[in-house]
Amino acid sequence: MADRLEALLDRFPVSARLFHSGPLHGSRDFARAGDGGQLHLVRRGSITVIRDGAPVVVIATPSVLLAPRPLGLRLIAEPESGADLASAHLGFDGGSANPMASALPDVLCLPLADIHGASEVLALLFEEAFNERCGRHALVDRLFEVVLIQILRQLMESGRIHGGLLAGLAHPRLRNALVAMHETPARDWSLDALAESAGMSRSAFAGTFRDTVGCTPGHYLQGWRIGLAQQGLRRGRALKVIASDVGYGSEAALSRAFKAQVGASPRDWRTLAVRDRSPQASKRTPVPK
Asked: Does domain 167-276 have CATH number 1.10.10.60?
C-alpha cells in the first residue's frame, strides 16, 4: 500500500516548538500570530476550552487538543487542583496552503488513549517536558512532531474525518490516486489515468472522488500544483523551473492557472508573501485574543 503521508510531509513539512510545560491553574489565553497552530497535550486534570463563536469543550481525561490554524483559545483549569499541560506551536510549511493544515478541523480533541501506538512516545515527551535536562527543547520538539504524525494516522485509520483530503487518504482506492498526484504532480494526469491508479472505472472514480474529497480530481490536482508553486515562490525559485516541476508547459500556463486559483499573478503573490514575512510586518501583526 502506498504511503499516504510521506509525500505530504516531504513536500509540506511540519515543525513544532515547545512553549509551555507544567501546571495550569485558573485561566490562560493561548494565541498565535501569523499562520501557525497549537498542539496541547493534557496529562492530568480537567480543562475547559473556550473560543469565540464555538461551543465550550470540557476535557476530563488525558487528551490532545489540536488547533492547526491561528486561533485564540482560552484554557481554564481548577484554580487549586489545576492541570498538567505540555504545549507546542506548530509551523505548517506553506501556511494556509499547507494541505494538512487545511484538511483538519479548526479544533480537534482526542483522548490520548485513542492514539494507537503513542503511549511510549507520550510518556517520553511528558518526562522530558516536565524536567530540566540538557537538550530538552530539541528532543521535545521532535516528539511533538512524532505525536502529530500519529494523530494524522489515527484520524485516517479511524474514519473520524468525513470529507476532504484526509477522508480521501482513508479511502482504500482513492488514496492511491491521491498519492500518485502528490508524488508526481508534473505528470500529464488524465481522468482515465487517475481512475486506473485507483483501480476504478472512470465514472465510479470521478463520482467517489467528488463525494469523498469534496471536489473533482482535476480541481484537486490544480490546487496541489498551485500549492507547490507557492512553496517554490516563497523559496525564491525561478518561475520557469517551478512551471516545469508542477506540470505546466510554460510560465504563461502556470500564471493563468495560478491567477485563476489565487486571484493574483505569481509575481504579485510573491511580492506580498515576501513583504508579509519581513520583520517589520511581523511587528505589525497583532496577537489574536
From this structure: yes
